[in-house]
Amino acid sequence: MENINFTYEEGKSKAGDVTVYALSTCAFCKKALKFLRENSISFRYVYVDELDYESREELKARLRDKYRESTGFPFLVIDDKTVIVGFNEENYKRHLVK
């Protein structure tokens, strides 16, 4: 998936290598990105629904296979180890706010 163009946002807090796979129309995805911005966490993201069909399907299959999680959105990955599917503020705080 080398052809995916992520958007990077620099924050003051380094909570690890944080990647968010989101949908541009998803209310929970918007809340997740807002949480990261408000907590000044550095992260990168991509709107999966804006990828072409083949790239979108390949990405979803890779996420599902690699992390053994159903592909829901937002799909947040920390340091290529911890995965959080969906947005729950307390869960985000526990994993991202130090």
Would you write up a description of this structure?
This protein is of the alpha+beta class. It has one domain (7-96): Glutaredoxin (3-Layer(aba) Sandwich). Helices cover 36% and strands 21% of the residues. The protein has three helices and five strands, in the order E-E-H-E-H-E-E-H. The chain has helices at 27-38, 53-67, 89-96; strands spanning 7-9, 18-22, 43-47, 75-78, 82-85. It has a five-stranded mixed β-sheet with strand order 1-3-2-4-5, with helices on one face. Strand 2 (18-22), helix 1 (27-38) and strand 3 (43-47) form a beta-alpha-beta unit. The longest helix has 15 residues, at 53-67. The protein is globular. The mean pLDDT is 93.
Tally of discrete structural domains: 1
Q: Helix and strand string, N-terminal first?
A: EEHEHEEH
Distance between the termini: 31 Å
> What is the second-level CATH architecture?
3-Layer(aba) Sandwich
Any idea of the CATH class? Alpha Beta
Largest sheet: 5 strands, mixed
Beta-strand portion reads 15-25%
The count of DSSP E runs of length 2 or more, i.e. the number of strands, is 5
What does the secondary structure layout of this molecule look like, with pairings?
Blueprint: E1 7-9, E2 18-22, H1 27-38, E3 43-47, H2 53-67, E4 75-78, E5 82-85, H3 89-96
Parallel strand pairs: 2-3
Antiparallel strand pairs: 1-3, 2-4, 4-5
How would you describe this structure in keywords?
98 residues, alpha+beta, Glutaredoxin, five-stranded mixed sheet, 3 helices, globular
Short description:
The chain has helices at 27-38, 53-67, 89-96, and strands spanning 7-9, 18-22, 43-47, 75-78, 82-85.
